[in-house]
Amino acid sequence: MAHQKLIPLAEWDAMHFSRTHSLNTLRKWAREGYIQPPPILVGSRYEVAPNAQYVPMNNSRIQRLRAARRLQGENLLESLTAAQNDPEMLEILGHGCTT
Fold first, then answer.
1. Residue 2 lies in a domain
2. pLDDT per residue over 52-95, tens digit each?
3. Which of 21, 56, 62, 79 could form a disulfide with 71 if both were Cys (CB 3.0 to 4.6 A apart)?
4. Which structural domain range is residue 69 located in?
5. ∠ CA 36-41-44 to the nearest 5 degrees?
6. 28 and 50 part of one domain
7. Is residue 11 part of a domain?
8. For residue 1, what pLDDT band results from cuts at 50, 70 and 90?
9. DSSP annotation string for the chain
10. Four-point Cα dihedral 69, 26, 50, 19, nearest 10
């Protein structure tokens, strides 16, 4: 299976938007799951597939992601107990984002 060549976030941004965004904004989007498929952190910079898309999160997804991040700082057993009733929460805890 051939892998698609990855490109830097700034190059991806220039390909997809008429007005470019700051590197801080692009890194935030990468960390928080706004770019799908998610970029890969290579050393200290993100690489992304050229055909990746910006996917704005709806408010409920943002709230679940924030809740998952809070849970990650708590006891693992407490995190699993709180997440067991929400499959999307389990997905976030397991992989960092949902599709």
1. no
2. 999 887 666 667 777 777 776 655 555 556 556 666 766 766 66
3. 79
4. 59-95
5. 140
6. yes
7. yes
8. very low
9. -PPPPPEEHHHHHHHH-SS---HHHHHHHHHHT-EESPPEEETTEEEE-TT-EE-PPPHHHHHHHHHHHHHHTS-HHHHHHHHTT-HHHHHHHHHS---
10. 140
CATH number at residue 46: 1.10.1660.20
Distance CA 54, CA 16 (A): 9
The amino acid present at 68, given as its one-letter code, is A
Terminal Cα-to-Cα distance of the chain (whole angstroms): 22
> Residue 36 in 3-state DSSP?
strand
Which of the pair, 96 or 11, is modelled with greater confidence? 11
pLDDT in tens, 22-36: 999 999 999 988 999
Asked whether residue 80 is assigned to any structural domain, the reply reads: yes
Token reading at 56: 């704005």
State the Cα angle at 16 between 12 and 22, rounded to 5°: 65
- Tell me the residue length of the chain: 99
